Amino acid sequence: MKLKLSSSVIPWLILLTCILLYLYSSVLSFYSSTANSSFIRLRDIRKSPTCNFSEGRWIRDPSYQPIYGANCPFHRNSWNCLRNKRENMRNINSWRWVPDSCSLSRIHPVEFLGLMRNKNIGFVGDSLNENFLVSFLCILHTADEGAKKWKRKGAWRGGYFPKFNVTVAYHRAVLLAKYDWQPTKFPGQDGLKGIYRVDVDVPANDWINITKFYDVLVFNTGHWWNHDKFPKETPLVFYEKGKPLLPPLKVSDGLQVVLNNVVSYIEREVLPRTVKLWRTQSPRHFYGGEWNQNGSCLFDGPLDENQLDLWFHPKNRGVNKEAREVNHLIQQALQGTSIKLLEVSHLSEFRADAHPAIWLGKQDAVAIWGQDCMHWCLPGLPDTWVDILSEIILNNLERG
Ligand SMILES: *[C@@H]1O[C@H](CO)[C@@H](O)[C@H](O)[C@H]1NC(C)=O
Ligand SMILES: *[C@@H]1O[C@H](CO)[C@@H](O)[C@H](O)[C@H]1NC(C)=O
Ligand SMILES: *[C@@H]1O[C@H](CO)[C@@H](O)[C@H](O)[C@H]1NC(C)=O
Ligand SMILES: *[C@@H]1O[C@H](CO)[C@@H](O)[C@H](O)[C@H]1NC(C)=O
């Protein structure tokens, strides 16, 4: 449709583009001499400022296939669904996300790394950000086969792309705040073994000192704020300025306080030119029970839009409702700040079919851990997150 329409307006668009380019380049020549600026501005013109990549639908497109395979050196075994022979991978990866009000192009790894030359991109958060990182590294690896694993103090894992002098890395900090195990000195009747002390006002060591190293930072947290990870024998106890917060906070209130503190730390410490993003919660798809109650995700296609509320709306009390609850807190914490939302929840809610499920690459993994309906197969859904992330990065980099 777009193509047909454009045939009559093309001459006008070209003229308009030339005028804009002329104006931009004359303005730019005053302020900047970087060679790639006008390219970035061109991308700006192309994108409508109101575009919401998160509103759209999945369409089946058998010609659409991943740009990396099972041999990417950055894979983690349990997410390497091709190697683990997950059923249906060809179908799973033949769905394309199509936003309603704009086009989402696939990342072009060579072009992207060229524009990112001498820059660094950091992810901070839990294993769902690591899942995201691995997707990103595997995609970028196709543009620089000489990519090396990158490791330094505080960095959990990452990659360095020597052709472009770009580092992309992940810092594991599941709660973002510092937390430490403290065994109880007085074991009592209540079964309490100790507490995890969370200092709500102190960022975790793994990222406290890295904020100046990165040109782009992508934060997340959410999957550890529950009683599975911290049951009543080993609960979270929240401290501020070194003293316990009283009365003790519920887990969700603790999350809110930590979000507010982390957000103000980022606003204070991260350089203004850094692109700051917060990825919204990645939804889980446990069907028929929690992860430890035989919850499963053996689906062979995306959910329908009209099923989503049943799965995820908190009022329906389903096992996967926490994604929207966490998002609500994130939105509140980010209001009025310079940190932008990287919205991936809605488009991901559809993809009950895209988790590793029982194909985890280890014989007894399902018996011990249950199905994995939380992380995503790679190649897979996070590749679409990468497309959106790369658009946002390129659109924001030079705006300051
Ligand atoms: C974009 O769309 C998603 C999904 O409908 C919605 O949750 C979000 O609030 C929208 N974002 C903006 C900035 O309007
Ligand atoms: C690589 O990038 C860093 C910034 O991330 C810069 O300090 C360094 O000088 C660059 N190295 C080369 C060889 O250009
Ligand atoms: C972070 O940097 C500060 C100031 O340089 C230093 O005192 C602190 O020990 C560092 N923390 C970590 C965990 O590296
Ligand atoms: C899970 O399935 C196994 C095998 O079918 C069964 O023995 C067990 O009771 C189930 N557990 C729950 C919590 O439903």
TrEMBL record:
<keyword id="KW-0472">Membrane</keyword>
<protein>
    <recommendedName>
        <fullName>Trichome birefringence-like N-terminal domain-containing protein</fullName>
    </recommendedName>
</protein>
<comment type="similarity">
    <text>Belongs to the PC-esterase family. TBL subfamily.</text>
</comment>
<dbReference type="GO" id="GO:0005794">
    <property type="term" value="C:Golgi apparatus"/>
</dbReference>
<keyword id="KW-1133">Transmembrane helix</keyword>
<feature type="domain" description="Trichome birefringence-like C-terminal">
    <location>
        <begin position="104"/>
        <end position="391"/>
    </location>
</feature>
<dbReference type="GO" id="GO:0016413">
    <property type="term" value="F:O-acetyltransferase activity"/>
</dbReference>
<dbReference type="InterPro" id="IPR025846">
    <property type="entry name" value="TBL_N"/>
</dbReference>
<feature type="transmembrane region" description="Helical">
    <location>
        <begin position="12"/>
        <end position="31"/>
    </location>
</feature>
<keyword id="KW-0812">Transmembrane</keyword>
<dbReference type="Pfam" id="PF13839">
    <property type="entry name" value="PC-Esterase"/>
</dbReference>
<dbReference type="GO" id="GO:0016020">
    <property type="term" value="C:membrane"/>
</dbReference>
<dbReference type="InterPro" id="IPR026057">
    <property type="entry name" value="TBL_C"/>
</dbReference>
<feature type="domain" description="Trichome birefringence-like N-terminal">
    <location>
        <begin position="50"/>
        <end position="103"/>
    </location>
</feature>
<dbReference type="Pfam" id="PF14416">
    <property type="entry name" value="PMR5N"/>
</dbReference>
<keyword id="KW-0735">Signal-anchor</keyword>
<dbReference type="InterPro" id="IPR029962">
    <property type="entry name" value="TBL"/>
</dbReference>
